[in-house]
Amino acid sequence: MNQTAQTISTSFIQALHELRVNKLRTFLSLLGITIGIFCIIAVLTVLESMENNIQTRMSSLGSDVLYISRWPWTADNSGEYKWWEYWRRPSMTVDELRTVENKVNGVQYATLCVKSNLRVKYLDVELSSIGGYAVTSDFDRIQNIEISSGRYLSSAELEGGNDAVVLGSQVYADLFGTVNAIGKSVSFLGRKYTVVGVMKKVGQNMAGFDFDNGLIFSYYAAANVTDVRSLDVDPVLMVKAAAGHNVSDVKDEVEGALRQERKVRPGRQSNFSINQLSQISERLQSVFGLIDMIGGVIGFFSLLVGGFGIANIMFVTVKERTKIIGLKKAIGAKRATILTEFLIEAITLCIIGGMIGIVIVLLLSLLLTYGADFAVTLSFKNFFLGLFISVIVGVLSGIIPAWAASRLNPVDAIRTT
């Protein structure tokens, strides 16, 4: 046991000596290992962080919400997106909303939302391309609207078509700066609306709602001044399944009720699309898989090059220390001891290269987390995976030079010049 520990410590010291004496040669050889480990661990870390962020956003929006409109989020089974057919479909209306509320069991909330681009004005400040969300009751319960100041729209204001509005954080900042906006009036769609609340900054969510650069007001207020059934807009009917009810069952019931409401004949395709966030996550999973494969291929070839570099270092090291090997064997050193010594030295070099790659990943993750507001976390699993791969590369690249060193004849090795 003591002899093994001594062999390991000696080999580790020899590896550090190689780094110190032959800095450039060792650096160039370790570069492949560093790049390979960096590629593999960086891709895994970023993908895991993206998946965690997506899961967090999906849980906040709810995976039990159906988004029903003219347009599907993804192509059909044939892989073709038939936009010319979807464009001619009738828009969702209040009639469909009431049908779902009254005829479908297992619905906790249902709401209707029409999104349009607005020009919003306050005094002499005017903003363009602002997302206007004209909604009915319960929209805030499905989309988890958070208010930073003031309040959200009441049911009376929403159902009565009152001229009240809730501003997004960026819209509020651009229009009012730091001035309190509650009670003041903004103009859009040819009318004045009283600001009753300002939303917290949340960013764009997976369902496509950008509340920071938008505002929320009554669907019926919008219907009074614009054609909400126009083909230029796409009202979305959102349905949230109640707790304890299977989303697939609710989806089937909703589809049946809407087909009946729209008098779609049996065997005919529905003239609406029912979308779920799971469709996006499934597409993203396939994209993540492709990125993971590309990163793995790049990492594999980098590790392959790095492994040849480490093997080259070890062959040169064996050549430089041939006499020392001969002397060790002459005084009784076993083949296993020599083999272990050079093998551990190769593993140590690979671990050093791998650690450099892991440290770079860690630094980049901190930069993305605190500099780009994108949470990236290097997990212990990926950390140890990087070390494990480094050890495997060290074994594979060092085994042949170590075997060659252990097989040297002590007499010939001592005579080597």
From TrEMBL:
Task: Report domain MacB-like periplasmic core positions.
Answer: 26-255
Report the domain of life of the source organism. Answer: Bacteria
Q: What sections of the protein cross the membrane? A: 27-47, 293-318, 338-371, 383-405
An example of a Gene Ontology cellular component annotation for this protein is:
plasma membrane
Does the keyword Cell membrane belong to this entry? yes
**Molecular function via GO:** transmembrane transporter activity
UniProt xrefs under Pfam families: FtsX, MacB_PCD
Q: Where is the ABC3 transporter permease C-terminal domain?
A: 297-410
* Signal peptide residues on this chain, from the entry's feature table: none
Q: Specify the protein's topology with respect to the membrane.
A: Multi-pass membrane protein
Show the InterPro entries listed in the entry.
Answer: ABC3_permease_C, MacB_PCD, Macrolide_Exporter_MacB
Q: What keywords were assigned to this record?
A: Cell membrane, Membrane, Transmembrane, Transmembrane helix
Localization, per the record, is: Cell membrane
Which PANTHER family does the entry mention? ABC TRANSPORTER PERMEASE YTRF (PTHR30572:SF4), MEMBRANE COMPONENT OF TRANSPORTER-RELATED (PTHR30572)
Q: Which family does it belong to?
A: Belongs to the ABC-4 integral membrane protein family.
What protein is this chain from? Answer: ABC transporter permease
